[in-house]
Amino acid sequence: MRTWGADNPKADIMEKKRSQIVDAALRAFLDEGYTGSSVNRIAADAGVAITTLYRHFESKEDLYISVIREMCDRTQYLTKQPWLDKPPLNGLTEAGVAYLGHVLSDDRLALYRIMARDAHRFPEIGRRYQQDVVAKRIALFTNYLAHWPGPRREKVKDPVRAARIYLTLLQGDFLETVLCGGPPPTAAQIRERARDASAELLVLVDAGHL
Hints:
Largest sheet: none
CATH topology of the largest domain: Tetracycline Repressor, domain 2
Structural class: mainly alpha
CATH architecture of the largest domain: Orthogonal Bundle
Low-confidence stretches: none
Number of helices: 11
Number of domains: 2
Helix content: over 70%
């Protein structure tokens, strides 16, 4: 684990302050939205002077965009997963469990809430989310399809469509329920949903509908 100040104390202090500002900004944007949040409050909550905030970010808009970008980058889901080498039903189920655990994590839920409220103000943020988050999830899934045995793999005519359908089957009403204040699903419920969605997708594949 890296310790602050181990290599360049000044640079590390600056990076630590920047991280504090981003975390404080995230909380402010969640609580009050872009319009209602105040850079002075964000600086105070971060424990830094307002001049320090503006040393890192040119404006409130720049800070907002930076928060969204960093939230998009905070993911463990997109790394190589052990289920890539498992047979279809087992691999799909493990992929589904990993996906749902990812999208229902605190970081992802915070990102969804912020984007639903204010991202329309910054179209480039929506494009970035689609390119850097959604597209990578789909690419990871289509890579998994390429590992399937030949006969079943050849039945998937449109891997991207198959990926989108699978993610929709997985998500169901879980995300909407949690975003509306409902209880998050348990680990058992997540696994059951992943298993059911995987079985349903395989039925569509074998029937030649994908």
